[in-house]
Amino acid sequence: MGTHIQARQGDIAETVLLPGDPLRAKWIAETFLENARCYNQVRGMLGFTGYFMGKRISVQGSGMGIPSAMIYYHELVTRYGAKTLIRVGTAGSYQKEIGLRDVILAMSASTTSSINDERFPSAHYAPTANFELLFKAVRYAESQEIPFKAGNVLTHDLYYEDDRDEYKRWAEYGVLCVEMETAGLYTLAAKHGVRALSVLTISDSLVTGKVTTPEDREHSFTEMVKIALNIA
Ligand SMILES: O=P(O)(O)O[C@H]1O[C@H](CO)[C@@H](O)[C@H]1O
Ligand SMILES: O=c1cc[nH]c(=O)[nH]1
User: Fold this and answer.
1) Ligand 2, residues at Cβ distance < 6 Å
2) What is the pTM of this model?
């Protein structure tokens, strides 16, 4: 048993989808999985295991930000034997040609987090996606004619930045969008030798100020979920 995930050994599949929002986890389980069963309710951070096209898959909420999410990633990998972690998250666009509901495959994640500063005191680690998962995601999206962009994302420690123009510098260097967990996910996956990919959907734009609703974020971003399930 883990401290924050209280499941029995064997309750959690080797492949886990990871939305930040536990209610997005519930929606994914109820909408896409057969025979889904809830294995965790600790802190309301719901986790479910079921079947997608015969394959056993879990979906686990992970909260907002690296400190919360890494607790769940850690327990999934070290206590429950998870081998493939696929984040299905929302993100804010940093580029004018990337609009609401666009899908992003995170090849790498820059970050404002200091999680790797102690590990690499005089250097900068580059958290990177698993190539096999990324390649499969590209092939699946192309086969289904799901438009996507692949590239560097920013994992920020702050949702509300002091300087709302801060994004322009990142945008100038090609960063596609901002979210709050991927750099932690890729770092932890590398350390433990498991596979990870973040598939994101643009929920708002720092460039245009356009936003989606909380309901949209919870239960309407189906394309990223389909990509995640089909590469699992
Ligand atoms: O929609 P999720 O997966 O939670 O992801 C994004 O949304 C939250 C902020 O609203 C942060 O967790 C950010 O990374
Ligand atoms: O972290 C996030 C997620 C969605 N939109 C943002 O602007 N930031």
Assistant:
1) 90-92, 159, 178-180, 203-204
2) 0.97
Report the residue among 59, 90, 157, 221 best suited for mutation to probe ligand 1: largest number of ligand atoms under 8 A from its CB. 90
Ligand 2 centroid, distance to 177 Cα (angstroms): 8
Determine whether 204 is an active site residue: yes
With pLDDT > 90 as the criterion, what percentage of the chain qualifies? 97
Residue 160 to residue 25: CA distance in whole angstroms? 24
Residue 185: per-residue pLDDT: 98
CATH superfamily of 15-231: Nucleoside phosphorylase domain (3.40.50.1580)
* Confidence (pLDDT) at 208: 97
Q: What's the CA gap between 146 and 26, in Å, rounded? A: 24
When pLDDT is cut at 50, 70 and 90, the band that residue 104 belongs to is very high
| Model ipTM value | 0.98
| Residue 121 pLDDT greater than 80, yes or no | yes
d(CA 109, CA 8): 33
For 28, phi then psi, to 5°, come to: -60, -45
* Cα 144 to the center of its chain, rounded Å: 21
What is the rounded distance in angstroms from the CA atom of residue 58 to the CA atom of residue 38?
A: 9
Q: Could you state, in order of their start, the residue ranges of all structural domains in the chain?
A: 15-231
Helices (H), the chain: 22-32, 66-78, 131-143, 167-172, 182-192, 214-219, 222-231
Ligand 2 mean position, distance from CA 11 (Å): 31
